[in-house]
């Protein structure tokens, strides 16, 4: 039997309407939950590399203004300024401190005392090294002093590293000792030419008492050597003679060619069966001249 009660149909319609309304109310709640989930998954904002670099520059710049900086950056700036102030603060805490001048004066005084003591000891071998002895040039006549100065000016062009005053003093010392000017010039020239740091003639290498010498010449011949420790070996010649030169591989010196002009500094002397030769070491210097 079919139910034709209009009341029942009305209730059913109302129930359906309420059900429909409940569905409409639940939909916004679901949307709010979705939005909350999206907000929670939002990534953390971080400065880019350019922004970090610019921030570092602005913080460390001497003219930077602390306004607008974070508390951490402002504290870092204050700490940096305090460190700079403490670093530059003087020990004696005086603005007009003369600490540098006093230190310089003490160092100069100590150097003068050590040099004077050395010259006093050297005077036992060379009386002219005595710092208390009068300059030899003051003991010459005007004519002798003029000739000595003229010869010193000429020799200064040939002797590198020696001033005209040093050469004239050396010549004057020989003249005061009783040598004529011409002989004094030759003696002073040989002494200064053989001095430390000077490029000496190849023929004079054997007469020099130093272990290392400086020579200059042209590579006239290179030897064929298969020795594992030798980089190259050959003959170097100047106007006075020829000498064998050996370059050890461990010295890491440049390779040379025949016909090149060389200036060899701090080369070590070697003696073998009465003949002298030189060898390049790690201390040596090879200059290829034009």
Topology:
Blueprint: H1 6-40, H2 49-60, H3 71-87, H4 99-122, H5 142-156, H6 164-176, H7 181-193, E1 212-222, E2 230-237, E3 242-248, E4 261-272, E5 275-280, E6 285-289
Parallel strand pairs: 3-5
Antiparallel strand pairs: 1-2, 1-4, 2-3, 4-5, 4-6
Helix pairs in contact: 5-6, 6-7
Can you describe what's shown?
By secondary structure, the chain is an alpha+beta fold. Helices cover 44% and strands 17% of the residues. Among the domains are: 111-193, no CATH class; 202-289, Beta Barrel (OB fold (Dihydrolipoamide Acetyltransferase, E2P)).
How would you concisely characterize the structure shown here?
With 290 residues, the chain is of the alpha+beta class. The protein has helices spanning 6-40, 49-60, 71-87, 99-122, 142-156, 164-176, 181-193, and strands at 212-222, 230-237, 242-248, 261-272, 275-280, 285-289.
């Amino acid at each position: 039997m079919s139910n034709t009660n209009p009341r029942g149909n009305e209730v059913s319609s109302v129930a359906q309407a309420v059900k429909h309304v409940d569905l409409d109310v639940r939909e916004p709640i679901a949307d709010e939950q979705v939005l909350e989930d999206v907000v929670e998954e939002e990534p953390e904002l971080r400065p880019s590399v350019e922004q970090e670099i610019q921030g570092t520059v602005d913080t460390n710049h001497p003219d930077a203004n602390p306004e607008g900086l974070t508390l951490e950056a402002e504290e870092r700036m204050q700490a940096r300024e305090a460190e700079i102030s403490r670093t530059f603060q003087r020990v004696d805490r005086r603005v007009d401190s003369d600490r540098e001048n006093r230190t310089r004066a003490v160092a100069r005084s100590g150097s003068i005392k050590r040099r004077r003591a050395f010259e006093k000891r050297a005077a036992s071998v060379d009386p002219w090294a005595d710092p208390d002895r009068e300059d030899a040039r003051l003991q010459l006549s005007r004519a002798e002093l003029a000739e000595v100065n003229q010869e010193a000016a000429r020799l200064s062009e040939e002797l590198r590293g020696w001033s005209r005053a040093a050469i004239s003093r050396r010549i004057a010392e020989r003249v005061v000792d009783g040598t004529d000017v011409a002989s004094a010039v030759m003696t002073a020239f040989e002494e200064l030419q053989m001095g430390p740091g000077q490029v000496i003639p190849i023929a004079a290498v054997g007469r020099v008492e130093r272990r290392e010498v400086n020579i200059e010449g042209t590579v006239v011949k290179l030897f064929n050597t298969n020795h594992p420790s030798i980089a190259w070996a050959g003959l170097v010649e100047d106007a006075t003679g020829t000498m064998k030169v050996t370059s050890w591989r461990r010295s890491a010196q440049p390779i040379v060619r025949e016909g090149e002009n060389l200036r060899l500094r701090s080369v070590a002397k070697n003696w073998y069966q009465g003949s002298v030769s030189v060898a390049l070491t790690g201390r040596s210097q090879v200059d290829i001249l034009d």
